Structure formats: structure tokens, C-alpha cells
Amino acid sequence: MTMVRRPLQRQPWLKTIPRRESVGGLSSESDGRGGCAWKGKEREGMAWGATVQGGSDGRDVVGGGCTPLSARVPATNDQPWSIHGGFIRQISFNGTRAVGVNVLYNNASRGKINARKEVILCAGTVNTVQLLLLSGIGPRKDLNKYQIRTVSDLPEVGKNLFDHMNVPVYVNLKAPVSLTLKKMQSIQEVAKYLLFGTGSLSSNRVLATARVNNSGIILFGMASTDEKLLKDIANYQTETFRSLFPAYNDTAHEGFLYLATCLRPKSRGNVTLKSRSIFDQPKIDPAYLQNDYDVRCTHEAINLAVETLNSPKFREFGARVHFPDFEECRHFRQDYRDQDYSECVMRIAGVTSHHPCGTCRMGTDDNSVVDEKLRVRGVIGLRIMDASILPSPISGTPNSVLIAMAERAFDVITERTSN
């Protein structure tokens, strides 16, 4: 079951920071449960982190406001089911009407699944584009390049790609107050997780967030980390990783990590085909920092992270920011207040938040890929419901927005009205 919850245990050093204490010019507002949260209106300030995850503790998405499917769909013999061990090769069309999907199974056999009413794509920002293009929906000139018959000439398919790019800002602590790999791998923590699904191993360590204007930071509550794991996830070279994380080989090192980001970047990338094969991953150009605004915005986010360390409690814990010593940046003053140095660091160390969106933009204009009812333009019986339809960036992680969109999509698709 999917859960929406706050961290199972806030680290003691965070608990000591008063809820309404000014931190770097920011203040946090109580949520009535010993923390703070942003809800509804756009806000500035600090807030405790919350996660959406599986588990036995916390509130599920239904408890968070969504109606369970079982309460909305009448009981019939046509219950949802899934197929494992295969790939959707393309959408099948009869003229311009989507009538099903063509499947390639793991045993190399091929098949077709027919749709009684509609086909709904939920393959994500990258793979939805790939399926559309392979099925003949997209820019005609790109389809002609791979001898794909055009079903609907939609020039914007694969365009408008945006993502949140994070820049790690490493903070050392003198006080032994943070979570370390050594503490996390203790017998007590392992037992908590195996027996009760609780403890530090059950958390993603996103403890708090803050924002000012369009610049945001995430407080990730660990400084020591597994070198191989993070290098693989972030695609860092060894020298880059070790310059960013000076305690990479010290499992007991005290500290934490800020991730600084521009919440609404203006740069736009694209997703295009590499070949006609569904097994060839498409080409992705995220175009990070292509727009100068994103450089300034990210620079402000980095400095927001540094400014929070001037609060009394952070000073008491001996918080000190680390400046990575990249060879390419040594001719700049090693200070995040220097925008040239910050830009140099962000271009080397910037990493995806895994929030790609926008490649099948929804809108009321003729250039949009889907209309306000999620229907793909130029064809019949095909809708999209995933992050690809978002027309512009979300100020933060998009998963909660997508949950709400899916809830609304149910009403739209079944022609019902949600109150």
C-alpha cells in the first residue's frame, strides 16, 4: 500500500531547532503535530519533509484525500489485471482510432491486446514519447527519418522537457548529532526495520525543505554515504564524487547534505528516437542550465542553503559548508557567494531529481499534445495520464500532483464530476 507520511523519527539535532526560529531569514510554521508543512497556497519558509512510500506505518493515499478505487468502481467480473514479461511495441490503430496495443513477450512471441473503449498511456515522460513516436504520432519529419507512417503530425511530441537539477551542498558538523552509516547499520537499527518496519532504514532521509521565491533546498539527513551506490545513481566520476563528499570513506562522519535546486526552471530539453526499436532507449537532452535564469536561480538556492547555517543552533553544532575543489573551478574564488564558482560547481556536480515532465504538454491550444481531457490530438480513443502532460514545472516533487491528477483523470475518463 502506498503511504503518505512524515519521517518516522526526526533526528534529535533537528528537534532542538524551535519551530518558529528564524533560520537564515526563514521561519517554519507549526502543523499542530510538532512540525510544519506547506499546504494549499504557495509559501516561503521551512517545512518538515514528507514521503510517499509503501509500508505499514503512516497514512495511505486514501487517508490523504483520495477515494479508494473499490468504492468508485462497481463490482463486476472485469477487474483490473496486468501482464508481466513483455513490452508494448506500439499502439495499434485502425485509421486514426486507437484499437489496442502490440506486445512483444519475453519468449519472443508477439501478440495484440484489443481495447474495448480507449487506450490510456501511463509510460512516463520518456517512454510515453517513445511509444507515441513508434506508433506514428509526433513530428512528421522525425517520423519520416525512421520510415514510420504518420498517424498524427504533432510537432510538440517530445519537446518541452523540464526537470529539477539538484546541486549537492555538503555540510560538516562537529557535534555527534546526525545520522551516519555506522549508526544506521547498527544491530538496533537493523532489528527495528526487520521486526517493525521502522527506524532510520525505513526513511529516505529527506528531513526538511525550504524555499525563497523560486529557489529551494532539501535537507538530506546524512553526510556519510556509500561511494559505489551514489556514484552509480548520480553517474559521478570518482574524482568528482570524492571532491563533493570529503568523508566518502568515513562511515562515522557527522554532517548532512543540502540539495539546492531551481524550482521552476526555464530551460527546455527534448526526447527523440534513436531507432525504430522499442529496445533502443530514446535520446534525452535535458538542456540543464541552458537558460541563464536557471543559473541565477540555482545560485540563489545554493546561497539559501549556506545562509541557513548562520542560525544559532547550526552554529552551536559547528555546521560548516564544504567547498568542492574541482580542478576546473580553481581559478575562481572558492566561495558560493561567487556566482562564477557556483556555476562552475553546478555544471560539474548537478544531478537529476528524477522529475522529468512536460514532453506531451496538455493545453487548449492546437500545438499542445493532449487537450484538457487528456485526449491526444489528431486521433481517437487515446489518452495520456502521466508526468509528460504537465505543461510547466511543479515547485517541488511532482508525485503528489500526479496523484491528484490521476484522481481527477478517473472522473474525466468515466465522464463523472468530482466535487
Number of helices: 11
The largest sheet, given as strand count, sense and whether it forms a barrel, is: 7 strands, antiparallel
The CATH superfamily of the largest domain turns out to be Glucose Oxidase, domain 3
- Number of domains in the coordinates? 2
Low-pLDDT parts are 18-25, 27-41, 55-60
CATH C-level class of the largest domain: Alpha Beta
The share of residues in helices is: 10-25%
Assembly state of the chains shown: single chain
What is the string of helix and strand elements?
EHEEEEEEEHEHEEHHEEHHEEEHHEHEEH
Number of strands: 19
What distance separates the N and C termini? Answer: 25 Å
Query: Structural class of the helices, strands and pairings?
Result: alpha+beta
CATH architecture of the largest domain: 2-Layer Sandwich
What is the global morphology? globular
CATH topology of the largest domain: Glucose Oxidase, domain 3
The overall average pLDDT, rounded, is: 84
Radius of gyration based on Cα positions: 24 Å
Query: What percent of residues are in strands?
Result: 15-25%
